[in-house]
Amino acid sequence: MTEKWFERSQMYQELASESLEKQRYDFSCYSAQQAVDFYLKGLLIQITGARPYSHSLTTLLRALAGTGIEVPPRVTECARALSEHYLQARDPDARLNDYTREEAAEAIRRMEVMIDFLRKVRPPTP
Known about the structure:
By secondary structure, the protein is mostly helical. It has helices at 3-21, 25-48, 57-65, 73-83, 85-88, 101-121. The protein has one domain (3-121): Nucleotidyltransferases  domain 2 (Four Helix Bundle (Hemerythrin (Met), subunit A)), CATH 1.20.120.
């Protein structure tokens, strides 16, 4: 059941990078946020058996911390920054300025920091 969540996360990781290459910076940022969202939800389902209903990465990380996993401050900061892209990158009128290459590259870097951490704390699948 949870494998589909991790597969979807992988798809969004790839889309984030592809979108950066194609200069679709807003979609790159949105995809980076979604990659972490899906991975975190898959991990929480695997650990708790329950699906969380939030797109806030900070809320999802708090739920993960509630399972006894220690979340480093750097990962929490990445979650805070990436969470902003859920609405800002998705809705065309949510920002005054267009996304830049630098913002998209930073979103991907933050995504990678978070996914690396989440992979390390993910329990083995039976």
